[in-house]
């Protein structure tokens, strides 16, 4: 597959969709993180899980190591999808990417409406993020820094064959997110929901609540029991909350 479609794994509902939910994975992650969401969301929600270069179907492509490049390319790929209202959900690094995509979709040059809703999970607001440099650390230090946040089940980095495959992607993603710096983050119009695990060692609630300073719309914080990867064991509760919020979006389609 080539063209904009390569960026998304698409899950179609049983009926004509009224909204598209675009989901952005974490550093080192892939679109499969949202595989289970497809059966939990209503049939009128079309789920698009973002496929970053360098993994799964795009393994032969180089990873993108610049936030500006990644957000620019995803925003361009979303142009054909803007016939329906868009809602963006991003976890960890994916939250920062989703926010930057929202900034681009709201820009006057983009034309059309911006996202109807921005949902950001497990990530401090960019102006409250503390600098780190794990992407320059030794392999064992990088892996330890990541696994201290929690796991999605199992330890892929303990398997030598998987570790060799996954580490370059993880390092590239950490280079992207650790070199992402915006001294004056843009304020978006889209309403925001910020999610976090109540035992996440990587973010604090005040730093998550600081996303409120970056929206002109409504802002809500919702926490779930768990660590940085709370969204896996709490998938049913999280998708129920997302579903409720999507149901409140206007029915009218963008012109």
Please describe what this structure looks like.
- The protein is an alpha/beta fold and 255 residues long.
- The protein is 28% helix and 15% strand.
- The protein is built from 6 helices and 7 strands, in the order E-E-E-H-E-H-E-H-H-E-H-E-H.
- The protein has a 7-stranded mixed sheet with strand order 1-3-2-4-5-6-7, sandwiched between helices.
- The model has no long low-confidence stretch (mean pLDDT 92).
In short:
With 255 residues, the protein is α/β, with parallel strands linked by helices. The chain has one domain (4-129, 182-247): Rossmann fold. It has helices spanning 67-78, 93-106, 139-147, 160-178, 205-209, 235-247, and strands spanning 8-11, 19-24, 45-50, 86-91, 117-121, 192-197, 219-224.
How many helices? The count is 6
What's the name of the CATH homologous superfamily?
Answer: Alpha/Beta hydrolase fold, catalytic domain
Side by side, the strands of the main sheet go 1-3-2-4-5-6-7
CATH topology: Rossmann fold
Keyphrases for this structure?
255 residues, alpha/beta, Rossmann fold, seven-stranded mixed β-sheet, 6 helices, globular
Topology:
Elements: E1 8-11, E2 19-24, E3 45-50, H1 67-78, E4 86-91, H2 93-106, E5 117-121, H3 139-147, H4 160-178, E6 192-197, H5 205-209, E7 219-224, H6 235-247
Helix pairs in contact: 1-2
């Amino acid at each position: 597959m080539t063209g904009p479609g390569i960026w998304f794994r698409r899950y179609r509902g049983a009926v004509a969709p009224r909204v598209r939910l675009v989901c952005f994975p974490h550093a080192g992650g892939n679109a499969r993180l949202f595989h289970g969401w497809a059966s939990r969301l209503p049939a009128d929600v079309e789920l698009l899980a973002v496929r970053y270069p360098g993994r799964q179907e795009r393994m032969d492509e180089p990873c993108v190591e610049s936030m500006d490049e990644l957000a620019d390319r995803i925003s361009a790929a979303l142009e054909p999808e803007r016939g329906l209202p868009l809602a963006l959900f991003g976890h960890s690094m994916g939250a920062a990417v989703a926010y930057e995509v929202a900034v681009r979709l709201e820009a006057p040059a983009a034309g059309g409406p911006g996202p109807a809703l921005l949902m950001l999970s497990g990530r401090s607001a960019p102006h409250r993020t503390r600098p780190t440099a794990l992407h320059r650390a030794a392999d064992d230090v990088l892996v330890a820094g990541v696994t201290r946040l929690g796991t999605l089940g199992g330890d892929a980095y303990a398997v030598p064959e998987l570790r060799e495959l996954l580490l370059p992607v993880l390092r590239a993603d950490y280079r992207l997110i650790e070199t992402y710096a915006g001294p004056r983050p843009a304020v978006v119009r889209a309403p925001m929901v910020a999610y976090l695990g109540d035992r996440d060692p990587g973010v604090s609630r005040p730093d998550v609540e600081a996303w409120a300073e970056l929206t002109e719309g409504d802002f809500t914080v919702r926490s779930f029991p768990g660590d940085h990867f709370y969204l896996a064991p709490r998938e049913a509760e999280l998708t129920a909350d997302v579903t409720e919020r999507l149901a409140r979006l206007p029915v009218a389609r963008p012109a």
